[in-house]
Amino acid sequence: MCCIGEIRYAIACSAFLLIASAGVSARSGDWPQWCGTDGKNMVSPEKGLPETFSPGRKQSGEGTVDLASATNVKWGVKVGTGFYSTPTIVGGKIYLGGLDGEDGIFVCFDEATGKRLWQWRAAPCQVPGKIDGFSIGFAVIPQQIGVCSSAVVENDRVYFVSNRCELVCLDAASVSETGEPRTVWKLDMREQLGVFPCDAANGSPLLIGDLLYVTTSNGVDRNTFSDASKEKERKIPAPNAPNFIVVDKRDGRVVATDDAPILARMLHGQWSSASLGVVDDRKLVFYGGGDGILYAFEALSQVPEKPAKLKTVWSFDCIPNEYKQTGEYDWITHFCLGDKRVKGTANKHDGAFVGMSEIIATPVFLDNRIYVAIGRDPAHGRGRGALHCIDARGQGDITSSGKIWAYQGLDRTISTVSVADGLVYISDVGGRLHCLDAATGRCFWIHDTNCETWGSTLVADGKVYMPTAKGIWVLAAGNQLKVLSHISLGGRVYSSPVAANRTLYVATTQGWLWAVCSK
């Protein structure tokens, strides 16, 4: 007979899956997509997770961890040279994108043992290093970070975006003798849609019924570090390519594209993944644009026979007006001077620079509210950010009427928020974790790790797990600051930790994946 704790655990997981994607088939306790659910709130109902762990001694020759030297670790394995995406856990399998040398890889592990079951590999991209004298990040960055997209998994179908800007559908149940899964279909967004990604293709697909909603990562991707004023001469390589697409999951056919005026105000790139919310009985898809504007698109009710345009229900400008004051500079030059690497930069990398930023984080939908922050590539350095809480029931341009609150006490950030028990948790590029009142935006506390942060927080089992370039911080959830532990993993943690089936999963840029559970 099961105990009361197990009954509560089952109820919590069932409630979790009720708000998960209707199209995603998963066991109770699984994590079937980026952020776990369609609303993209980085919160898990898992219980029994440890507040600390010791990763143990790495057996590099074997690519495993000596469990006798570890604490609260079920297993640890190394594959390739780095992991930059976040794990997806479905049906006893773990799916994770990464890097092996200069090739993007996508790996499937056994959840119980960490054994590698199969691996998909993408060859390096062939892109010119310069166009019109401007350097092209997409010529080199995909070979440095590999596959960054997190997969959405439905039954045996695995959907993700490769480092080559391809939307890929794999058959996880059909694996060749060489250990490669069968590719069901592949949409090359560069070749077929004319997309020119900025730096990297990073978006994670959102699955709604038979439809996949995906950012194309189309952007500017022309940068000069010697003369910031030259940036105003830039041209968008693919001005007619879509920013956001809808694809039939069955055959990879593009059935709809956005009609948002993002490219006219494009700052740099587009890497935000989409979320879903039901507002007044209408399904809305929320997307953060490369112009710093949040868009609410009406979800398609069925698969169109002919290509269609997504309807924009409302939009919200997430860049505060004072961040747009560029003084003597045009807006493009001012944006460029906000990059700490540029010659003559105005950014001292101390968080004080005030300027425009795009949306890289995923919008989180909860209780008719959207929580989303602005930020820039962390390589650009620190600078003032802004976190918005927006009424999702708006119509048209709701920049004024839709605002519930804004918090400007954080740095730029690419992190997605966690909202739990009336509190919002968000980390910024400078390595500070902020805890806010979800109703008012009031800040309760800030924990400064003094360490660059790329990933998002995870709230689970009364704890906040925060990834940084120097490991994982664990804090007690609540409006009082309490640090529980700091775990060094011997490498940077740029992906976000996730929890599934009473186990925490943490991946590093050195290619290690740990399964952590209380013992």
Q: What are the low-pLDDT stretches, counting only 5+ consecutive residues below 50?
A: 1-25
Mean pLDDT: 92
Number of domains: 1
Distance between the termini: 22 Å
Number of strands: 40
Query: Which superfamily, in CATH terms, is the homologous superfamily?
Result: YVTN repeat-like/Quinoprotein amine dehydrogenase
What is the CA-based Rg, rounded? 21 Å
Looking at CATH, which topology would you report? Methylamine Dehydrogenase, Chain H
Task: Explain this structure.
The chain is mainly beta and 519 residues long. The chain has one domain: 7 Propeller (Methylamine Dehydrogenase, Chain H). 6% of the residues lie in helices and 37% in strands. The protein has four helices and 40 strands. It has a five-stranded mixed β-sheet with strand order 1-34-35-36-37, with no helix packed on it. Strands 5, 6, 7, 8 and 9 form a five-stranded antiparallel β-sheet that branches. Strand 36 and strand 37 form a beta hairpin. The radius of gyration is 21 Å and the shape is globular.
Compact description:
The chain is mainly beta and 519 residues long.
